[in-house]
Design brief:
CATH superfamily of the largest domain in chain B: MetI-like
CATH class of chain A: Mainly Alpha
InterPro entries (chain A): MetI-like, MetI-like_sf, UgpAE/MalFG_permease
Strand content of chain A: under 5%
CATH topology of chain A: MetI-like fold
Low-confidence stretches of chain B: 1-17, 260-272, 305-310
CATH architecture of the largest domain in chain B: Orthogonal Bundle
Oligomer: heterodimer
GO biological process, one term (chain A): transmembrane transport
CATH class of the largest domain in chain B: Mainly Alpha
Order of helices and strands of chain B: HHHHHHHHHHHHHHH
Strand order of the largest sheet of chain A: 1-2
Family (chain A): Belongs to the binding-protein-dependent transport system permease family.
Subcellular location (chain A): Cell membrane
Organism (chain A): Actinacidiphila paucisporea
Distance between the termini of chain A: 11 Å
CATH superfamily of chain A: MetI-like
Chain lengths: 329, 310
């Protein structure tokens, strides 16, 4: 994260070192009471936001106790019976759950292999363009799909690849074999990857482009004068400049391996069935909100949360071992 | 546009001319051709589907049927599909819901995020550190869908538009972006203001906010886009009388149910369902296309990339 680091600390660092002392009105830490009295405006400004996090995050987080209960809506959260680890036992013995876990990890890995490198490649392509106008135009077009909802993206793909869609019309007119993509469980995973690429590969270039433009142009010039060809310049200058970001994003992906595009899956699960499209999040949704088995669904959700947090933690450790910045220190 | 470019090449703008620098090899024609093909593919893959959707929404029923479900360019453009939609049926209502939730939600989110970001950007604010940690932790460990649902139910927010705003009021990423920006306001300005006797509230309003217009625009637009695009909470918290546009789109276009006669106004026999579906799609997309140029202006200003670390 050297780039972002430089950006953020370059600005804040100066203010931080000397600023705290220089603040005439805020010198010294004082007692709790004086600090409280001094900061009451700031505390009032924070209050609504803090209340939001306490109620809708920590309040909801506390609601996870139902994972250890046999939740009966009529009895309510507190009166429902404690059942210990029954929900988790049931979950670990449930083939549907494991099928959802497998789908989730499988799709996440496919994304890692087929989606992850695309923004990097596109960013390098865009960066290599010498004409600004072309680059800006392509950027504008490529960023756009990121801002469309998954509903629109899935609808667009249906219109293009569906049974009566654009592609099959063209193929039919040319007397070629039509393709069966939408609603075909066998084609579902490639379809999902294609959708993610379409929606986010342009947007994903932003962070890499920012890193690439931070590279001092003189490095390239010096290397070229020393006889390094385009390939060697790429390998020794371009690639190292984006490496910290690649590591950071890989870590974040790893931590997110158990949550692949909930909305995307939910929108299409009905058309291909759970065998192809059930992921952990949709499992939670169907078991809990559709099936009414709240305690069981909450157990699956909690499992996902705990394992996900542990994965982020572990990945961050690994990054530090490798000498990278990671997500946090 | 030009400001975006400046931001993008903060370091290189002075040195790099639009032309190829002298030390770079003359590109091979084959490489150039491959690049051109790749770029054209990116542009076409994004634009062509939209062209077809917009065209189809303006086409007549007969033409769409004759062409097998879509047209590339309508022979006799008609507004029939849109007339149906805006005739006071479910789509008209959903449009109002979406607009209202987007406007009110964005205002509420911005207000709360600004308050938090400003207070947390001050170095030694009372309780600042623990509160920041408390907030960042929620990023690592989200509460989960089922507890969230039971909470909304317990707070009696089911079937109220508040259920679309309250659970997503403050976004941690937006908060971090804004806080980073506020921190970059030069300390001298605070000092001068305080010597003039200004309090925190006045400093925020008169100095920090005016200096942070770019960041506020980005964060505000991010909120607006996410409120406009949201449908999942609507699908679990609201009944169909309260649905916003995206949820209507989801049900009638992605879900495959046809808009009922009564739903699309009336007499939807006049226009083919396909044209109406495409019109809904267009209506749901247009606001994004309208704000997009403004968003685009700020993307690369370093506002986002500078604050990615959290």
């Amino acid at each position: 994260m050297a780039i972002a680091e430089r950006d953020a600390t370059g600005r804040t660092g100066a203010a931080g070192a000397s600023g705290a002392d220089r603040r005439a009105g805020r010198k010294g830490r004082g007692t709790r009471l004086t600090r409280l009295r001094r900061d009451w405006v700031l505390l009032a400004l924070m209050a609504p936001g803090v209340a939001y996090f306490l109620v809708f995050h920590y309040g909801a987080l506390a609601g996870n106790v139902i994972a250890f209960k046999d939740y009966v809506p009529f009895d309510g959260l507190w009166a429902s019976q404690w059942v210990g680890l029954d929900n988790f036992q049931k979950m670990f013995g449930d083939p549907d759950f494991w099928s959802a876990v497998l789908n989730t990890v499988w799709i996440a890995l496919l994304q890692l292999v087929f989606f992850f490198p695309v923004p990097i490649a596109l960013a390098m392509l865009l960066h290599s363009l010498t004409r600004d106008s072309v680059r800006k135009f392509v950027q504008s077009v490529a960023y756009l799909p990121h801002f469309l909802s998954w509903v629109i993206v899935v609808a667009v793909f249906q219109q293009v690849l569906g049974e009566t869609g654009l592609l099959n019309n063209v193929l039919g007119d040319a007397h070629l074999h039509t393709v069966d993509v939408i609603g075909n469980p066998g084609a579902f995973k490639p379809l999902v990857i294609a959708e993610v690429i379409w929606k986010d590969c342009g947007w994903g270039t932003i962070i890499f482009l920012a890193a690439l433009t931070q590279v001092d142009e003189q490095q390239y010039e010096a290397a070229a004068i020393d006889g390094a060809g385009p390939w060697r310049r790429f390998w020794h200058i371009t690639l190292p400049s984006v490496r910290p970001i690649i590591v950071l994003l890989l870590i974040m992906r790893l931590g997110d391996i158990l949550s692949v595009g909930f909305e995307q899956m939910l929108l299409q699960r009905a058309s291909v069935g759970p065998d192809a499209a059930e992921v952990i999040d949709t499992f939670v949704y169907y078991k809990g909100l559709v099936g009414g088995d709240y305690g069981y669904a909450a157990a699956a959700g909690l499992f996902k949360g705990v394992v996900g947090a542990a994965l982020v933690f572990a990945a961050n450790k690994v990054a530090h071992r490798l000498g990278e910045q990671g997500v946090y220190r | 546009m030009s400001s975006a470019a400046q931001g993008l090449r903060r370091t290189g703008s002075a040195r790099r001319q639009p032309a190829r620098p002298a030390w770079r090899e003359r590109p091979k024609p084959a490489t150039q051709a491959a690049k051109a093909v790749a770029l054209a593919a990116v542009v076409l893959l994004v634009t062509v589907p939209f062209l077809i959707i917009v065209s189809t929404s303006f086409a007549s029923n007969a033409e769409v049927v004759a062409n097998g479900g879509w047209v590339l360019w309508p022979q006799h453009p008609t507004l029939n599909a849109y007339r149906e939609l805006f005739d006071g049926g479910i789509v008209t209502h959903a449009l109002w819901v979406s607009a209202g939730v987007t406007v009110i939600g964005t205002a509420a989110s911005l207000a709360c995020t600004i308050g938090l970001a400003y207070a947390l950007s001050r170095r030694d604010v009372f309780g600042g550190k623990p509160i920041l940690l408390l907030i960042l932790f929620t990023f690592l460990f989200p509460p989960g869908m089922i507890p969230g649902f039971l909470l909304i139910k317990g707070l009696h927010l089911l079937n109220s538009y508040g259920s679309l705003v309250a659970p997503v009021l403050v976004n941690v990423f937006n908060l971090v972006v804004l806080r980073g920006f506020f921190q970059s306001v030069p300390e001298e300005l605070y000092e001068a203001a305080r010597l003039d006797g200004a309090g925190e509230w006045l400093i925020l309003r008169r100095i920090v906010l005016p200096l942070s217009k770019a960041a506020l625009a980005v964060v505000g637009l991010f909120y607006a886009v996410s409120y406009w695009n949201a449908w999942f909470y609507a699908s679990i918290y609201l009944d169909s009388d309260h649905w916003p546009l995206q949820q209507v789109l989801r049900t009638y276009v992605v879900g495959g149910s046809q808009l009922a006669d009564s739903a699309a106004g009336d007499a939807s026999a006049v226009a083919a369902p396909q044209t109406i579906q495409m019109a809904v799609l267009v209506v749901a997309t247009v606001p994004i296309l309208l704000v997009y140029p403004f968003l685009q202006k700020y993307f690369t200003k370093g506002v986002l990339t500078g604050a990615v670390k959290s």
